Amino acid sequence: xxxxxxxxxxxxxxxxFGLFELPASGPDxxxxxxxxxxxxxxxxVVKSPAGETMFEARKDSSDTDSGHLFAEVLAxxxxxxxxxxxxxIGHRIVHGGPDYSGPVExxxxxxxxxxxxxxxxxxxxxxxxxxxxxxxxIRRGLTQIACFDTAFHHSMAQPASRFAIPRRYEKRGVRRYxxxxxxxxxxAGRLAAIAPQLVAKRTVIAHLGNGASLCALRxxxxxxxTMGLTPLDGLVxxxxxxxxxxxxxxxxxxxxxxxxxxxxxxLYNESGLRxxxxxxxxxxxxxxxxxxxxxxxxxxxxxxxxxxIAMMATTLExxxxxxxxxxxxxxxxxxxxxxxxxxxxxxxxxxxxxxxAARERISGGDxxxxxFVIPTNEELTIARHCAAVLQTxxxxxxxx
Length: 400
Ligand SMILES: Nc1ncnc2c1ncn2[C@@H]1O[C@H](COP(=O)(O)OP(=O)(O)O)[C@@H](O)[C@H]1O
Ligand SMILES: CC(=O)OP(=O)(O)O
Ligand SMILES: [Mg+2]
Known about the structure:
CATH class of the largest domain: Alpha Beta
EC number: 2.7.2.1
Distance between the termini: 11 Å
Helix content: 25-40%
Structural class: alpha/beta
Family: Belongs to the acetokinase family.
Number of domains: 2
Shape: globular
Binding site for Mg(2+): 9, 378
CATH architecture of the largest domain: 2-Layer Sandwich
Radius of gyration: 21 Å
Keywords: ATP-binding, Cytoplasm, Kinase, Magnesium, Metal-binding, Nucleotide-binding, Transferase
Number of helices: 14
Strand order of the largest sheet: 5-4-3-2-1-6-8-7
Oligomer: single chain
Site (Transition state stabilizer): 180, 240
CATH superfamily of the largest domain: ATPase, nucleotide binding domain
Order of helices and strands: EEEEEHEEHHEHHEEEHHHHHEHHHEH
Bound molecules: adenosine-5'-diphosphate, acetylphosphate, magnesium ion
Low-confidence stretches: none
């Protein structure tokens, strides 16, 4: 009998999960799955590591209780992997605030602190925390572990972590935290394995998914990132505006008769690709569309991504390596090449054939900047963190 951990990755547009076996050599995937809520009838799919479908269920669109999903996933695991011992559930928690620079066991006290951070990630934090309570109810006593998007950026120092507002707000926690850290950590680790000579070099990782952000790295550690106090700052996203003149918010509130709730909804849910195109938040749909507004939304996404990559390069005082990851970064060759074109002046040159084939290294021979496509794996990062935390809990030794 071997030990396993179930990892839940609740993002803004999907819930992904993975079941990992925990041998001493590191977590091994047994199956993974996705709850896709984009379709009219949300779909639950579980696949083997080879990509074969092991289980599929279509949920009634009126069934908005994700608790049913988790009960279904746990029942499936019991049935198919009953010979293993489920040791813990590992959760991606988007906001860890100032207190958590690494993974922690989810006690009631920790839960309360994380729930209090909901206003700083209103789209994500409730979705991340809801399964914790659900699982507590259906599997009392099962260890649950929180792994944070913010933790990787605790290495970020001032001035990168500072806003230009009076210091008293910084003391109250109003500072730049950054997100997508579990993804950046995984990609930085893969990059170190593929190209160890680049670890000490000036690297920017572009996580371009439904949520999107950049991380500037030196020696594999985060020194700057584009998201701030909340996952609203920085790049244009699926439904989020990214960086915006704060005067816009004042104007909307004072002269467009909008409440703070209206403004929150506008900036988190109705902006970004969705708002600019008026068509969709999904990059695939926009790239396939012949509408001018779709093209304009994609152009703005590319323009801003290139601008902010140059901003990260300023923090690093140059750029040696650029890595694309996330749903768009991994799959949208048009976006990678358009961003590359805008960064020619920085020495970026992308090889068209390598880019079309989504090879691991896509920079041309003449490029001053090494360019890679590295698929992210937030679930594996969480599983690794869980294995480390479980080893510190005496009553849960990991079997060799
Ligand atoms: N083949 C593709 N071509 C272009 N865009 C894609 C492709 N596959 C996925 N995407 C885009 O990736 C985005 C979702 O990214 P993902 O990282 O999966 O999201 P999440 O932030 O929810 O984890 C969507 O905009 C989607 O359109
Ligand atoms: C932090 C964040 O934006 O996450 P996601 O990409 O899952 O929306
Ligand atoms: Mg994501």
